[in-house]
Amino acid sequence: MSVLVTGANGFIGRHLVKRLKKARRRVVSFDRKPNKYDACFLGDITTFNFDSILGDVETVYHLAGLLGTTELFSRVLEAEKVNVFGTLNLLEAMRRKDVNKIVFTSKPNMWKHNVYTITKENCERYLAMYREVYGFKTIVVRPFNVYGPNEPLEEYRKAIPYFIVSALRNEPLEVFGSGDQTMDAIYVDDVVEALLLCEEKEPEETVEIGTGDPIKVKDLAEKIIHMTNSKSRVVYLKMRPGEPPDSFVQANGNMLHLIGYKPNVGLEVGLRKTIDWYSENLSEFEEIYNPHKVLV
Fold first, then answer.
1. Which pLDDT does position 202 carry in this prediction?
2. Contacts of 246 (CB under 8 A, 6+ apart)
3. What angle is formed at CA 176 by the lines to CA 207 and CA 155, rounded to 5 degrees?
4. What's the pTM?
5. Which of 198, 240, 245, 267 has its CA 20 to 30 A from that of 133?
6. What average pLDDT does range 134-156 have in this prediction?
7. Could you give the domains of the chain?
8. CB–CB of 192/19 below 8 Å?
9. pLDDT of 196 over the 90 cut
10. Residue 154 and residue 187 in contact, taking contact as beta carbons nearer than 8 Å
């Protein structure tokens, strides 16, 4: 039997597909755009005929979706269509083809007035319905601040890759708000291992995939400047929409007792691996998402 990975060409998706293949799993990949690494079914998740590729699939890893914080305020209708209607298109195909096991990547729901959060909450409610009405095995996971090699920067801004690329270029590191807000940074390999265990153990509770060890955003920026021997400095900007200025982000630790997993890669080691990768591939990141274009 095979596993289907939607969003297979995304950041987490690429790492997950690689790990599944290493475990000799048969992988069916789906994404909206191609990549240079693997063959993949391409299409619009809202209209794609998933019936055609679910024939021997037993588990779906659903990672596809539009991401972003500020980025999605100008794309509200598109985000709802892709994230919610696209998920329903997939779920209905699963129902028709008797594929009832799905691992769904949601979002830690700290920020209520946030487009991405709202779409993910809507999806979680539908998943609960499919579990109750159709007997689906729905495994909901909430990865926290995932980082690692090969994360894109052109469509949205994530702190760690943005800080690293800026520091390597000796450019200012922009921090929104005071920088006292925290993040729970977890290395992508740990996230992938947790996802595999979630498929295996099928926890009924939502699994928070994080380290439980938060770091302040401003401290993270200074740490990256130090680790890259950069001449960059931190500059502070007004808070961006969709994220409160006093947010405290920390996983609740339930990953350990629900699936028996504890992250293996510490922040220092993970950052070093990530910095080394971006150093070697810096020329690929000439285009970086600029949030100021939507803050007018």
1. 98
2. 180, 181
3. 65
4. 0.94
5. 198
6. 95
7. 1-143 (3.40.50.720), 145-186+211-296 (3.90.25.10)
8. yes
9. yes
10. no
